[in-house]
């Protein structure tokens, strides 16, 4: 839905924060709250994971989300579900309509294989997620795979895939409504060795709106 | 369910086997009845933290369909298995799947991973032997489809010491009528080429 018209939930922000380039932030969402990710400067993607705060083994499942929605490119009305197919987040607004759900997160391993020494020591989304989940006792090897906001990684019909720069411009956003209480982590993708973020990671903004009915 | 090494076995629908491969050994999976679907998940024998990664495998092969020469990578992006010969294509894509149709497959993998000391949330999405999902231009994806015929094979060479969970799950193909019968053979390194 290009040019989404703001709904009434946008009048009551309970969180409004900037995520610096390459950084991440964590958010505790109550059921009904809406998380908005805004690409502040353009050509910036972000990786998002979601977990049940009361059972950290229940996580957003990209593969189950594809299975339940029947497509790789999710948009308004589609739900991100857990391993059991239970809804976690619903996309309720989207000004870009182009995201990735297959590719997981950039990681030290991917940088090593794809970029050799140039990738050494670079910040990655996986490192961000591991840091975010460490206080919860989730080991790095159990960091779940992500839904990748604005990431441009299309699959051709012959099965080939190649990344390209995000299609988002400054101010583009996507809104997710929490279908239950959630721990959500957003990694402002640090990748600077591929065209995904135009080789220059930039800042983004996350706003959390109160649930309809006024509960913050 | 047993763990095997250097043996042959036959799987039927709804069964799994964990096969231990030493570095350089090859697992040959043969579609006995035609039109099968096997879930294949390698786990590092010496470090259970290192498990198959479908996303890393697609990214590093730059391809969602796998054939001879494709490498299956781990979560840490190390090579785990390489397809050194096959007579059909395979993928690691999720397909359209109505709620409930994957219950048996998930139970199978949960049992298999429990025997490896791993929990349900640590089960990676599998490599799907003999399966090819069709992706439409708009990203729509259909129920899994098997294009293999009786006698088709895939040879997977171990790039490290690895335990490979293989589960026969024809129900992921919908009402295909597949029998689920596949044969597993472990071949020494010098006999592994397909």
**First-residue to last-residue Cα separation of chain A:** 27 Å
Q: Strand-residue fraction of chain A?
A: 25-35%
Q: Please state roughly what percent of the residues of chain B sit in beta strands, choosing from under 5%, 5-15%, 15-25%, 25-35%, 35-45% or over 45%.
A: 25-35%
Number of separate structural domains of chain A: 1
Instruction: Trace the largest sheet of chain B across and list its strands.
Output: 2-15-4-13-8-7
Written overview of the protein:
The complex is a heterodimer of chains A (216) and B (194). Chain A is mainly β and 216 residues long. Chain A has one domain (8-209). Chain A has helices spanning 62-69, 108-115, 125-133, and strands at residues 13-19, 24-29, 34-39, 46-52, 55-59, 79-81, 87-94, 147-149, 173-178, 182-188, 204-209. Chain A starts with 12 loop residues before the first strand and ends in a 7-residue tail after the last strand. Mean pLDDT of chain A is 93; it is low at 1-5. Chain B is mainly beta and 194 residues long. Chain B has 2 helices and 15 strands. Chain B has helices at residues 54-61, 103-115; strands spanning 3-4, 8-11, 16-21, 26-31, 38-44, 65-66, 71-73, 79-86, 90-91, 127-129, 131-132, 145-146, 153-158, 162-168, 182-187. At the A-B interface, strand 5, helix 1 and helix 2 of A face helix 1 of B.
């Amino acid at each position: 839905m290009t040019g989404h018209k703001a709904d009434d939930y946008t009048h009551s922000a309970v969180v409004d924060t900037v995520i610096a380039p390459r950084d991440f932030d964590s958010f505790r969402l109550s059921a009904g709250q809406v998380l908005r990710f805004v690409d502040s400067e353009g050509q910036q993607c972000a990786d998002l994971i979601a977990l049940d705060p009361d059972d950290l083994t229940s996580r957003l499942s990209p593969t189950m989300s594809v299975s339940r929605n029947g497509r790789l490119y999710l948009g308004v009305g589609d739900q991100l579900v857990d391993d059991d197919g239970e809804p976690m987040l619903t996309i309720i607004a989207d000004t870009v309509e182009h995201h990735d759900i297959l590719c997981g997160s950039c990681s030290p391993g991917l940088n090593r294989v794809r970029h050799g020494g140039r990738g050494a020591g670079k910040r990655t989304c996986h490192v961000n997620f591991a840091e975010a989940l460490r206080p919860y006792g989730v080991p790095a090897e159990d960091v779940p795979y992500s839904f990748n906001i604005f990431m441009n990684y299309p699959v051709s019909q012959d099965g080939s895939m190649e990344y390209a720069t995000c299609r988002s411009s400054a101010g583009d956003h996507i809104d997710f409504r929490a279908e239950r209480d959630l721990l959500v982590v957003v990694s402002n993708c640090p990748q600077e060795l591929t065209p995904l973020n135009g080789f220059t990671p930039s800042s983004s903004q996350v706003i959390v709106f109160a649930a309809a009915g006024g509960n913050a | 369910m047993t763990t095997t090494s250097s043996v042959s076995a036959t799987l039927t629908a709804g069964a799994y086997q964990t096969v231990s491969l030493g570095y350089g050994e090859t697992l040959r999976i043969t579609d006995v009845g035609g039109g099968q679907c096997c879930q294949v998940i390698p786990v590092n024998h010496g470090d259970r933290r290192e498990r198959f990664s479908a996303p890393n495998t697609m990214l590093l092969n730059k391809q969602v369909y796998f054939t001879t020469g494709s490498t299956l990578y781990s979560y840490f992006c190390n090579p785990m298995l390489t397809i050194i010969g096959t007579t059909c294509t395979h993928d690691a894509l999720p397909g359209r799947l109505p709620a409930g149709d994957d219950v048996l497959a998930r139970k199978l993998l949960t049992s298999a991973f429990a025997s490896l000391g791993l929990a349900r949330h640590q089960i990676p999405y599998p490599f799907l032997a003999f399966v090819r999902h069709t992706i439409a231009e708009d990203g729509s994806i259909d129920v899994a489809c098997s294009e293999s015929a009786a006698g088709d094979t895939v040879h997977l060479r171990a790039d490290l010491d690895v335990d490979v969970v293989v589960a026969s799950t024809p129900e992921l193909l919908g009402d295909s009528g597949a029998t689920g019968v596949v044969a597993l053979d472990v071949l020494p390194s010098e006999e592994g080429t397909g």
